[in-house]
Every structure is written in structure tokens, then in C-alpha cells.
Amino acid sequence: MARGLGKGINAFFPELEEETSQDEKILQVELSQCRPNPYQPRKTFQVEAIEELKNSILEYGIIQPLLVRESIKGFEIIAGERRYRAAKEAGLKTVPVIVKEMNDQKMMELALLENLQRENLTPIEEAQAYVNLMKSYDLTQDDLAKKLGKSRPHIANLVRLLQLPAQVTAMINNGELTMGHGRAILGLKDKDKLNAIIKKVTTEKLNVRQVELLIQQLNDKKPQEKAAKTKKDIFIAERETHLRDFLGTNVKIHKGKKKGKIEIDFFNNEDLDRIIDMLRKS
């Protein structure tokens, strides 16, 4: 059986639950014949983790075979790239594999699911993997959400992060900023103030809520002192946060004496259709 791929993956790939058949025996193949997964969404591998796995392999060997598919130049790794990298570091000449037949779409989905269940991806890597799947196979966000067992708002919120400047996405990848910081920065209207915002966030170690308030003040063009005096009541602020999280975009609630209004940001026609669809279904 192909074990260790994550309990939930078999729900999407029931073929991985089957016992190894006559055509799916564990084989020993030359390491040089194996190639990394071309659809691997993870772009960075922790050196420390690979080193630990290498030491384990040197002492106990590779306990779980790599899952591969045949290609023109040998074998492409479906699951087990960390084991492959650690095996190279350990100086192994051969590795155990189980050969499976799998098309490109299934291979891409499995690579994404395996990393998601092991929490190996950064939010940016996860977002890019979603976009790659949607572009390659003409899927909508709703299609992808159903296929991967994720909520549509979750996918929408992550994909929006790719609209951030490269400087910010790099900081999220490195762990210097969180996904929440990135979503808050998306709401900044004057992009010329971006560098100043980032410097303030990192030097003062502002949390997400503080960044949201700072950007709201800048967007409203109010001095901080004046903004503090006209601070919104807790009820309105909480509702704004709830709507922002649900819709995956910046939301402002303006409360007047007799009536109020809600402003919802959108970035393009597709984003507007997404928001309208979510409001209809809610």
C-alpha cells in the first residue's frame, strides 16, 4: 500500500488505497533515473529537515518507497521528493519505488495535496499552485475548491496575495510577514507608501490588526491623531473584519445618523463576479 501520503489524500485518490498489485511491486531503481516532480508546488526545502532525513536514511534506510511514474528519461517523482533529496545527500545509488500510472492533472493535484496536508507550503507557494491548476485545466475557483476539499473563500484569499509586489511576497515566503499582513497591505491605495509601511511593520513588529488600522488611516488621508479621535466603535470594526475575512477583500462600513453604506473593494471583473456569487449564496 502507498502509505504515509496523508490520511485525507486517499479520499481524492482512492487508487492509492489499493494494495500493491503484481504490476505495482516495490522496485529498486537507480537514483540517477529519478527526476523531481515537475509540478512540485514547494520551491524551498529546509536544509535542516533534509539533513535529519539523510541521517535517518543512513541508519535505517528508506522505509517508505517513493511513488513515481514512468517517463521518457526514467521516472518522475509523484510523492517523496524530500526522500529523494535526502537519498542523494546520503550517497545512495538506488532507491525503492512504486510505479503508478498517473496523468499530469492528477500528479499536480496530488503534489499539492501532499504538501498541504504536511503544511510544507508557504501561502504564496500554495496560491501559485492553485493558479497553476486553474490555468492548466481551465478550472474555476469553485471547481478547484470542490476538487481539493477547500472552501472557495480560502482559495480566493490566497490567490489575491499574488497581486502583492514581489518584495512583499518574498517576505511572506521567508516568514517575515504573515498572510494576514499581506491581505492588509493589499488594501493600500497609495502604492508609493508601500516601502514606508513595510519598514514600519517590520521595525515596530505590528500585528495584523495594527496594520489594517494604519492602512485605513492612510487611505482616509487622516492624521493619526485625528483618526484616533474618530475611531470607529467596536461593533462596526468587528463587522468590517468579519466581512473582510468572508469576502477576501477590503471592506469599509460607514455609519451615518440615519443610514449607512458598505464599500467592498474588487480588483477586476472576475473578482467582482466572485464577490457577487458569494453574496448570493450566503
Q: What is the element string, with H for helices and E for strands? A: HEEHEEHEHHHHHHHHHHEEH
Task: Kindly report the average pLDDT value.
Answer: 79
Q: Which strand order does the major sheet show?
A: 1-5-3-4-2
Instruction: Give the number of DSSP strands.
Output: 7
Name the poorly predicted regions: 1-22, 223-230
Shape: elongated
**Could you give a short account of the major beta sheet?**
5 strands, mixed
Quaternary structure of the protein: single chain
Number of helices: 14
The percent of residues in helical segments reads: 40-55%
Beta content comes to: 5-15%
Helix/strand class = alpha/beta
The gyration radius over C-alpha positions equals 23 Å
